[in-house]
Amino acid sequence: MDFEAWWLIFLPLLFALGWMAARFDIKQMLSETRNLPDSYFRGLNFLLNEEPDRAIDAFVEVAKLDPETTELHFALGSLFRRRGEMERAIRVHQSLLFREDLPISQRDHAQHELAQDYLKAGMLDRAEEAFAVLKDTSFALPALRALIRIYESEHDWARAITAVQTLRKLVNEPVPQLVHYHCEQAQAFLAEKPSNIEQARAALALAEQAVDRAQMSGPTPAFVRVSMLNASIAVSQQDLIEQQFFLASVLKQAPEFAGLVASELFENYIAQGQAAEGLRCLQEHYQRYPSLDLFNVVFKGLRTQQGVEQAWAFARQALQLHPSLLGLDRLLEAELAQKPANDQAPLESPIPGADLTLLRRLIHRHTQRLDRYVCGTCGFQARRYYWQCPGCNAWETYKPRRLEELE
Fold first, then answer.
1. Is there a contact between 114 and 130 (Cβ–Cβ < 8 Å)?
2. What does each C-alpha distance from 149 to 145, 155, 231, 322, 362 come to in angstroms?
3. In a designed cystine with 274, which of 103, 114, 175, 269 is the match (CB 3.0 to 4.6 A)?
4. Structural domain boundaries in the chain
5. CB-based burial label for 389 (10 Å; 0-12, 13-18, 19+)
6. Which residues pair with 374 in a beta bridge?
7. Model-wide pTM > 0.85
8. Is CATH 1.25.40.10 the right assignment for the domain spanning 67-172?
């Protein structure tokens, strides 16, 4: 290609244009910086120095001087909400919504932030209304998840189920708590006077379908809960055989949860005149899947059905294989609760000369803190087993074992 000298004219021209553009950008940046109030820079300085209280005061002053600073308003509202100053957070986000010049995207953002303010403040009715407005916006998904939490807290299981079904249309993700929503409905129907058995059965049928759709593998609390509720329906119908079938299915398919159903299952065996068979079944299960709750049921059953020696022989062997202060506490409690045949006679004890009352009292002081179930998410401890943690509201976070067994 032949070189033409007139092309050289473009080199200084391009250089000049670049120099002018740079000068313009620098001037614009300096102009914008001068227009920012000093309070803005003071606020940034306070944030860098980890002084959030003084930073908030400085940013509030900026917002007053320049109402158009939308992003600063969002930042302030979030800061107020994190600090628990819900009234101030609500006012900030409401002031944004009152602006007629606010773009639609930022208006939806402000609506979402306001809904979160209401939710954290415990104003569930207002939060529900605010989240419902967002159903056709870019915030539809987080709003729907928030609505599900609200329906849970209000125990509005029908609306929670509808919301979950809508959620599954938007995203392909498992929602394991759907099973529990149906179970909550079934439990409510059973608690009615008189019990609404047919509706309870229908709710449990939907719960079983939800278990199948979730494709849950291994022993799950959802399966256990459905089986226990089916057993409760059988009891209300005085069908001992069906009750035994559902309770025994827990031992077979979710053996770790045997402690939750062992007492009811043993009472079922007794009611059918099969106490010996029931004890044998539970003892065999304990050999494979030992737990403190199951130990307690077996020991009490042996104490009642076969006498002191058999019960304590089982207890000695069990505690040798699985040492446990809580287990010893449980068997002493059962022993002391056993009423003697003659009220005037001293309590029969397998340990000659032992003061079981004193022994149990000393042990019990150290086992009270161990006799609890614990949430695997937030660590909330409870004396009874929960399907939903009262602390963090997460589902299926409790293991069917006491704290001592987990340590």
1. yes
2. 7, 10, 29, 41, 44
3. 269
4. 67-172, 174-273, 290-338+354-370, 372-407
5. buried
6. 381
7. no
8. yes
